[in-house]
Design goal:
The chain is an alpha/beta fold and 338 residues long. Helix content is 27%, strand content 8%. It is built from eleven helices and five strands; from the N terminus they run αβααβαββααβααααα. It has helices spanning 5-9, 34-39, 47-51, 74-85, 127-131, 147-151, 173-187, 203-206, 217-221, 249-252, 290-315, and strands at 20-26, 60-65, 93-97, 121-125, 164-166. It has a five-stranded parallel beta sheet with strand order 2-1-3-4-5, with helices on both faces. It is elongated.
């Protein structure tokens, strides 16, 4: 099995472009439906724009999600899911899964995720289904896991696409919609294979750390740490994992570019990472390894902060020749004096 990000980023043949796609979205795993709710806040693009056909080049989209569906459920809602499972749909479908998956090997028979075998693409919406999340933490009684653990990390959809993980607890709305839009363009034959990293996340969204996009990063460089959640300074000492977590939320915000954990005074607890939550607990304690790195940064940062303070004092003033006195003191030396 190969999990190279470079491999996933290479164009490969897919099905010919289609003009109609179903999106079958199920949250029947161990889920709170928080990802479905979160995606309703997307703006780049919005779910409404995609479903209403307002995005140029996208195929027509039929969305089937129990939270967002206008029906009252029952046979009318489930019909398309049964058709998909039986291979009877009239168009390709993207299978979106939400919620971690219990281990069926210890809990009787089950194969509800088998629809992924026939899907044009399979998308894991949120950390629970991507990697197991809260339900899969140590001591859980279900042995639950993420979709890649259940179907296999080498799983490929009918179009030859790996499982696409869009983690987050909940998923950041624009991250999900941007990923879905890429896949829809790919279905239409207008984009190459979606580029994924080793953990099957979209590379362009999760290729940087929280720290690299954080407004507080400059304080870390100067070892200017806070012990108070009301401070705008770096929060590493009070539990922020931003320097090592792959996530773009500080850069992107949450809704309309506004919000995002460190942007509003919250620490990063690593909710987009495969090891969440176990490897990031206890929350609000200084991260393991953080004490050593911040200790090394302290003398350097203090020196840098002092030198910059001196420079700031120097440049934060106007030059002495700007005045309203009757003489010219700019240093101007006329070539031909009057």
């Amino acid at each position: 099995m190969t999990t190279s990000g470079q491999m996933f980023g290479q164009p490969r043949p897919t099905t010919p472009g289609v003009d109609e796609v179903h999106v079958l979205w199920t949250s029947e795993g161990m889920s709170c439906d928080g990802d479905s709710v979160s995606v309703t806040a997307a703006m780049q693009p919005s779910l409404e724009d995609v479903v209403l056909g307002l995005i140029p080049g996208l195929p027509r989209v039929h969305l089937h999600n129990k939270v967002l569906d206008a029906s009252l459920g029952g046979d009318d809602f489930m019909r398309v899911f049964h058709q998909a499972a039986n291979g009877q749909l009239d168009a390709p479908y993207v299978f979106v899964v939400e919620g971690s998956i219990p281990n069926e090997q210890i809990n009787g028979d089950g194969y509800w995720t088998s629809m992924g075998d026939k899907a044009w693409a399979v998308v894991a919406a949120g950390t629970c289904v991507a990697y197991g999340g809260i339900h899969a933490m140590a001591g859980n009684p279900t042995g639950c896991m993420g979709l890649c653990d259940y179907l296999g990390w080498d799983f490929r959809s009918s179009a030859g696409i790996p499982i696409v993980n869009v983690p987050g607890c909940p998923v950041q709305p624009d991250n999900f919609m941007e990923t879905l839009t890429w896949l829809l363009y790919q279905a239409a034959g207008l984009s190459p294979m979606i580029p994924l990293d080793d953990m099957h996340r979209p590379q362009w969204l999760f290729g940087k750390t929280v720290h690299e996009g954080c407004d507080r990063a400059g304080y870390y460089e100067q070892a200017d740490f806070t012990s108070d959640y009301n401070s705008p300074k770096c929060q590493v000492k009070i539990g922020c994992w931003g320097p090592v977590v792959n996530c773009n939320v500080p850069k992107r915000g949450w809704m309309g570019g506004i919000g995002g954990c460190p942007n509003v005074g919250g620490i990063c607890i690593g909710c987009t990472m495969p090891g969440f939550p176990d490897k990031f607990m206890p929350f609000m304690d200084e991260p393991s390894g953080g004490a050593q790195s911040s200790m090394l940064a302290t003398p350097y940062g203090a020196l840098i902060r002092r030198l910059r303070s001196i420079t700031n004092h120097t440049v934060n003033a106007e030059p002495k020749w700007r005045h309203n006195r009757p003489e010219l003191t700019t240093g101007y030396n006329p070539r031909w004096p009057r």
